[in-house]
Each structure stands twice: as C-alpha cells, then as structure tokens.
Amino acid sequence: MRWSEALMATRRTVPAEADTPSARLVLKAGLAARLASGIYSLSPLAMRVVSRIERILREELDAVGGQEVRLPVVNPADLWQATGRYQSIDDTLVRLHDRAGRPMVLAMTHEECATALAREMLVSYRRLPSLIYQIQTKFRDEARPRAGLIRLREFIMKDAYSFHADAEDLDRMYTQMLAVYRRIFARMELPVLVVDSDSGLMGGRVAHEFILPADAGEDHILACGVCGYAANREVARTTLHGTASVAWQWHRTEGGRPVLAALPRGRHASLAKLAAAAGVPVTPWDGHPPWEADAPPPGTPVVVDASLKVSAPPGGLVADVLEVAGQDPCPTCGAPLQAVRAIEVGNIFKLGTHYAERLALSVTGPNGAPLVPVMGCYGIGVTRLVAAIIEAHHDGAGIRWPASVARWPVHLLATHPSAEVVRAADALYAALGRARCLYDDRSASPGVKFKDADLLGLPRRVAVSPKSLAAGGVEVRQRRSGQTEVLPLEAAIAQLS
Ligand SMILES: [Zn+2]
C-alpha cells in the first residue's frame, strides 16, 4: 500500500502519561489513539496486526478441535447472580438495567454464558469433550487503566471453555492447552514463562499464567534462575523456616469479621494463601482493631505461617501464608528467588464443576444417569498481546515486529525524486504488490522516511537511492539484525516476493 493512501500518522512526541516503551511506541507509530482512560481506537495498522494474531489463535485452537462461537456481551444479571459473581465482583463488572428495568451486566468474561450455551447443546456425554472459543471485545471498568494497551478497560480477548465427562479428561485437555499456548506464543516470538497462579475470582483451583518478563509489567513473579521454578507472587512458595521474630497481623473478611495471622516480622501475608487457609476472602485490616493479638474475639480464625518457629494457639492452624519476596529460598532447589516484573499474556484454569453445578448443566451419562461436566477455561488478551510483542521487540528507534504478525513484510522508500530512482521503486512496488509492501511515496526528506521506517519496524526496509543504483541495485536492510545488502532489482524482487 502507498503511504499516501493509508490512514497512518506517525508522531515524534507523546504525552508524558505514556509511561512504558509500548505505550509510547503505540502512539508514535500511530497504532492507536486514546479516546478516554483505558479506551483506545485501533488504526488500520494495528487492526492488521490484531487480525494476524487472531489468525494464529484460530489455527492453533482449531487444530485441537476448538469451535468458534460468539457469546453475548450483554447478559441478564440472574445468570451472574446464580454463580455468585454478580454479588462478589466489585465495580469492575459494569451493571446496568434494560428499558424494562431488568438488571443486566456487561460480560467481562464468559464462563456463565458458555455454561448456558452448553446447557442447550450438550445433551449427552457423547458430545464430550467439547472446546469452544470466541474472540471478542470485553469491557472491564478497571480502577487504574495503565501502560497504553497493557491494562485497558475495553479490549479484545480470546476466551475458550472446555467441557469434559470427568476430571481425567480435563487433565488431558489442560496439558494439551499448555502445549497449544506455548506454540501460540512461540509463533509470536514471545519468550513466555509458565507460572503457577492464584485463580482469584474465576472460582477455580488449578491455574497457570503465561507471563512475559518486562519492566512495564504489573505482575510480580518469583523465578528461580537455577531450576526454572516460577510462580505468581500471590502463590509462590519458599523453604524459609525457623524464623523467631513474629508479628501478629489482623485481616478482615468481607463481612467485617477478623482473621489473625502470625508472620515473620517485616513481612506480609499473601492474601490468596491466607484466604485459602482461613476459608474466606480477606483484606488487610486498616488501622488497629479493638482487640489485642493475645485476646482475639471468640471464633476468630488464627493462622500461623509455616516459616515461624512458634506453634499455633489452641484452635489455630499452621499454614504457608507468607508472601514470598526476592532472595527467599526457592522451594525446589533452595537457590535465592529473583523478583521479576512481568506482563500476563494468557491464563488457563481448571474450573471443575463450579459453574456447571451453579447453572444446572448436566448431560445424560453412559448409564442414563445425569452427569455434571467438568470444565476448563483458557484466556488470551489480544490487544494486550500487541503491546507485549512491542515490549519484547523494540529498540531506541522503534518497533521490531516479528514477521509472523507484521502489518507488511516490506517497507519500501525512495530517497530521491529523480526519474531513475522513482522508476526502480515503482517497479519494485508493482512486483511486490500492496499486500506485501508499504511504499513510502511521500515527498518527505530521506531522514524522515528512514526514521519512520525504524519506528514502524516492518521486518525489511528497501531503500532506493542514486547511491544504491550506482552500487548495482537497491539496499535491503533487516530491521531486527541491522544487516544490510545491496541487491540487483530482480534479485530483490525474487527475495521479497
Ligand atoms: Zn530453584
């Protein structure tokens, strides 16, 4: 495509709130324009990257029997009330009313909807296993959108749901999806880590996250450089033990009841681990509660962290509730763990029968008795991937797109308006075609054109100049390696087509 026909706009300066490399490059390269906090319009340039990402997702999911569906964005609230999430999720879930006054929600994830669809269509165990997926816009009213396309309020997501006759079959699919996700990220040249994670509000038990180490990330990971152990900070383990110095810390349940935890002095509880130990979600208690640690109100759950030397008081329990920090020993090999910032690009969960039971999903089993399917779910943030790929592939001059997702493979430019140069550039463009080549046909200076080529980061830049023609052809430069060679026109066409 000729630059002069394309809806494109590069810029040299961006607002200060663009605080990560990808946030700056997204704006500078004209991939997206901010409309409101956490809400961006995607340009044609970004949409083509998105559609190439989506194609990879569809190919890999279809290859393991995935079938694409489209689930509604607006859901009746009763579906979410039945699973308890209407009550438990904060204002991130947008609640609204339709014209008849019926409560509705904007679905920020689709376990409820997918289960409701399965209820209609999966009548017999013979239909199991079943894997469905969709690629769709979601809205989450995040309190703190940030980092450009990394934490958005409106974004594109691929979400998939699987249904199985038993837990063993879910295990098989879960293992298969781990491999599918590794292939997906490898095709985008993203060096992801797979980590154990807290399944949080999804209501699951076993979960893994795919994370990309990046300073721009908001996830905190503990990783071992020796044995490869890696886990989200919320659930990371350590072999720390025998700590003598104890601090008692109060936490509270949603209902305002206290939970008391004993931790090494100067350390915090992992809220996910403490919630699992106490059997109820907790948050730290603000200020000092009206009791002392040696006299909690009767019935208060008391949890003593397993790293401490002290034993639990009567009625209390010892459990691993410590939030692991950098330098704590690795639970597998004992080497000091490294604290790493990372971007979560995908996650997978074993949901069990949580949603199926609450939404009365059952099928006819082999012996005619009802069978409640076991479920898994699998997410990938598509818009976030655009930012993650940029975080992983950029330098001081701009983006360096992997060939698998680049908008065009070739960025062609002419540095001089002479007839000979323009003729050679036009011939190259005609041979490659608008689908494979961005042709910078602007009257801008060579300096501007080279700068924009580095910024846009297409895999190969082809420059036609009086100098290159004198040297026998056109200059082909690899954006990633910087490797440059002059090729005769015909050879360049053959190589780039
Ligand atoms: Zn280790």
Structural class: alpha+beta
Average of per-residue pLDDT values: 93
Please tally the β strands and state the result.
28
Summed up, the helix count is 13
The bound ligands are:
zinc ion
Q: CATH top level of the largest domain?
A: Alpha Beta
Name given to the CATH architecture of the largest domain: 2-Layer Sandwich
Straight-line N-to-C gap: 15 Å
Strand content: 25-35%
| Fold-level CATH name of the largest domain | BirA Bifunctional Protein, domain 2
Overall tally of domains = 3
- Apparent shape: globular
**What's the main sheet like?**
9 strands, mixed
What gyration radius follows from the Cα positions, in whole Å? 27 Å
Report on this structure.
With 497 residues, the protein is of the alpha+beta class. It has 3 domains: 3-235 and 338-392, BirA Bifunctional Protein, domain 2; 246-319, no CATH class; 408-496, Rossmann fold (3-Layer(aba) Sandwich). The chain is 26% helix and 28% strand. The chain is built from 13 helices and 28 strands. Strands 3, 7, 8, 9, 10, 11, 12, 18 and 21 form a 9-stranded mixed sheet that branches. A 5-stranded mixed sheet has the order 15-13-14-16-17, covered by helices on one side. Zinc ion (ZN) binds at residues 224, 226-227, 229, 330, 332-333, 335.
